[in-house]
Design brief:
The chain has 672 residues and is α+β, with helices and mostly antiparallel strands. The protein has four domains: 5-92 and 288-394, Transferase(Phosphotransferase), domain 1 (Orthogonal Bundle), CATH 1.10.510.10; 98-281, Transferase(Phosphotransferase) domain 1 (Transferase(Phosphotransferase), domain 1); 414-570, no CATH class; 577-669, TATA-Binding Protein. It has 26 helices and 20 strands. Strands 15, 16, 17, 18, 19 and 20 form a six-stranded mixed sheet that branches. α5 (110-129) packs antiparallel against α7 and α12 (290-300) crosses α13. Bound molecules: ligand 6BB.
Length: 672
């Protein structure tokens, strides 16, 4: 996604921009930091040209997020629109996707599921009360914040029927596996009812760690959904089985409504209170916090009255972002303070008003990861700490039925067909569960519908593993794995190598080589390119130039500190040492090079394309039309204290479940 300089400038006036954390459709999400408050944010970056016909969806999402303020809905802070780009600045959720959390734990206990599910019900009751249907509910669209609370994201497919939520919708949208049967049939449907079906699928995924209806082939998947039969694994309590059945009812009129979910016995268990769905007063726009206003007024050199008036316009500009982020600081017990930035413009205009004048220069590196030239003090600390390393359902309103939409939109998801079929483990163990058959199922031809196989005791992936040494590749240290050196020794990791002295020498040579490459990378052309991006005056440029490039002569050590994160990765001799986290698969091995070699040897077999940067493998799979269907990273690392090798995994693009199966497959086949 090429980013025009003027567009970058607009963003960099207010934010420091870091690693890409995900991409999907035409958006890329990067980590960022709001300069004035020092608060972390997520920045969704979209190129208008690339968006094409999807531009209205972005507008829909922005409008919805401006209207929704709730403790379990991801907050929008700022929208920056330029001639070519749209930047959405959003609440930072370092816990990542609920999806990753589920798969890391295989599945959640009923108790933990209840904690999350109550939050989902709260968010959805609120969203529906505001007249919106989300229409793309799935664990990938629920993020975990720093307090381990869920935040709903991605309102790009949401709908707000003009006459209210009781009015029917026509657009068939969302992810197929979560789509209600009425959507699949192309019928007009009520958005809130379809959302409840998706919530049922989501609840099942939380409790089971896999989907109730699943198939690589969309047609077969649709047939399964239209049959409405799924298997209830034995570990589900009768209460869970009942609730799932009430939510995944084929007939939308027989389905539970969100209003009924609020005080459903299963939902209330251990709480004895209904779900609170009203927006917490801390999240509404009605109360203006005086100390935030005072701090902003001082910074902007304005009166408090005019600052309050400006904030109350809720323009989702720098003023809104500063206010909301200051408020967030306050609510987390941090001082309500803005950073005092010196200003250079003649009339000493404030950074809040004018954008920072003395910022360090920023640019996008070749691999399009935003990097900072200068102000690396923060950057280097941050990267090491980076998260990936380290309503009422108003039935009375259902009477009118104008069809308002016609097209069929699916949230971007790679083909579930040919390419990925090989990665999906077979489901067996039919005897593990009981069939849940919803009444009034819609009749479909069953003759070529595959029998829906039940999952094995834990995850579907483990059934495939039965054919191989049994391993819990995604979460559990593997005690059985035995590396067969002769099998994969052929591949020598760049920046890695075997553990021998010989290869250490080689690594040292490679290290030097890389250092030279990096010196070249900081060539005058590149330097001037970076400096072009600077928002400061000439004297500032010189100062910065001195800070960054003058240091080259001061020696290699200094240069390493000043390198971009990706360059730092490339220069690292060994694997990173990280803490065990839920996106890290533990192995029983102690030699990172062997683990890396094992993975490297298996990727081509799985049709995974990759580039290697030290111990990080940037992996991709391709679809039929030369499009990247899936992008993810696998990084071999050492686990702090444990002294064993781990594999950090991060999905950047593509269907979450297909990714899960593929990575499980790679890691189990790699015999680690
Ligand atoms: C968002 C976010 C907010 O991310 C790929 C897609 C907010 C993401 C985040 C994170 C991990 C670590 C740190 C921060 C609004 N819309 C989309 C958002 C989408 C990506 C999530 C991860 N997978 N914080 N973070 F996810």
């Amino acid at each position: 996604m090429p980013v025009e300089r003027t567009d970058q400038h607009e963003l960099f006036k207010y934010y420091e921009v870091y690693e890409t954390i995900g991409s999907g459709g035409f958006a890329k999400v990067k980590l960022g930091r709001h300069i004035l408050t020092g608060e972390n944010v997520a920045i969704k970056i979209m190129n208008k040209k690339d968006l094409g016909d999807d531009l209205p969806r972005v507008k829909v999402e922005i409008e919805a997020m401006k209207n929704l303020s709730h403790q379990h809905v991801c907050r929008l802070y700022q929208v920056i629109e330029t001639s070519t780009q749209i930047f959405m600045v959003l609440e930072y959720c370092p816990g990542g996707e609920l999806f990753d959390y589920i798969i890391a734990k295989d599945r959640l206990s009923e108790e933990e599921t209840r904690v999350f599910f109550r939050q989902i019900v709260s968010a959805m009751a609120y969203v529906h009360s505001q007249g919106y249907a989300h229409r793309d509910l799935k664990p990938e669209n629920l993020l975990i914040d720093e307090d381990h609370n869920l935040k709903l994201i991605d309102f790009g497919l949401c709908a707000k029927p003009k006459g209210g939520l009781g009015f029917e919708l026509k657009t068939c949208c969302g992810s197929p596996a979560y789509a209600a049967p009425e959507l699949i049939q192309g019928k007009a449907y009520i958005g809130s009812e379809a959302d409840v079906w998706s919530m049922g699928v989501l609840l099942f995924a939380l409790l089971c760690g896999y989907l109730p209806f699943d198939d690589d082939n969309c047609v077969v998947l649709y047939r399964k959904i239209l049959r409405g039969k799924y298997e209830n694994p034995r570990w589900l309590s009768p209460g869970s089985v009942l609730l799932l059945n009430q939510m995944m009812q084929m007939d939308p009129k027989r389905r539970l409504s969100v209003r009924h979910l609020l005080d459903h016995p299963w939902v209330m268990k251990d709480y004895n209170s209904p779900v609170e769905w009203h927006a917490d007063s801390r999240y509404t726009h009605t109360f203006i916090h005086e100390n935030c206003i005072t701090e902003m007024a001082v910074n902007m050199k304005r009166s408090r009255v005019s600052t309050t008036a400006l904030v109350k316009e809720w323009r989702y500009d720098q003023t809104t972002a500063t206010y909301l982020l200051l408020l967030s600081k306050k609510q987390r017990g941090k001082p309500v303070r803005l950073r005092l930035e010196p200003t250079v413009c003649e009339d000493s205009c404030s950074p809040l008003h004018q954008g920072l004048q003395t910022r360090e220069a920023l640019h996008f590196s070749e691999d399009e990861d935003a990097v900072i030239v200068g102000s690396l003090e923060f950057c280097s600390d941050y990267i090491d700490d980076c998260p990936w390393v380290s309503a009422t359902n108003n039935k009375d309103m259902r009477l009118a039925s104008p069809s308002v939409e016609k097209k069929c939109v699916y949230s971007p998801s790679p083909e579930r067909g040919r390419t990925m079929a090989q990665h999906r483990p077979e489901r067996r163990d039919r005897d593990q569960g009981q069939t849940s058959e919803n009444k009034e199922n819609i009749a479909v031809q069953e003759k070529d519908v595959k029998i829906f196989a039940l999952p094995p005791p834990r995850t579907p992936a483990s059934s495939k593993r039965n054919a191989r040494p049994n391993k819990n590749v995604l979460t559990t240290p593997n005690q059985n794995a035995n590396f067969n050196g002769s099998k994969t020794n052929a591949v020598t990791p760049k920046g890695g190598g075997s553990a021998s002295k010989e290869s250490n020498k080689k690594r040292a040579a490679e290290f030097k080589e890389l250092a030279n490459v990096d010196l070249l990378a900081f060539s005058p052309e590149r330097r001037s390119r970076s400096l072009d991006m600077a928002v400061t005056g000439d004297s500032e440029k010189k100062k910065r130039g001195g800070k960054v490039f003058g240091s080259l002569e001061r020696g290699l050590d200094k240069m390493i500190t000043l390198l971009t994160p990706s360059k730092k990765r490339a220069l690292r001799v060994g694997p990173r040492k990280i803490k065990a986290q839920y996106n890290v698969t533990l192995t029983s091995q102690t030699n990172p090079d062997q683990v890396l070699n094992q993975i490297l040897s298996i990727l081509p077999e799985k049709n995974v394309d990759f580039t290697q940067k030290g111990y990080t493998l940037k992996c991709r799979t391709w679809g039929d039309f030369g499009k990247v269907t899936m992008a993810f990273e696998l990084e071999v690392c050492l686990l702090q204290r444990l002294e064993i090798v781990g594999i950090r995994r991060q999905r950047l693009k593509g269907d979450a479940w297909v990714y899960k199966h593929l990575v499980e497959d790679i890691l189990s086949t790699s015999s680690i």
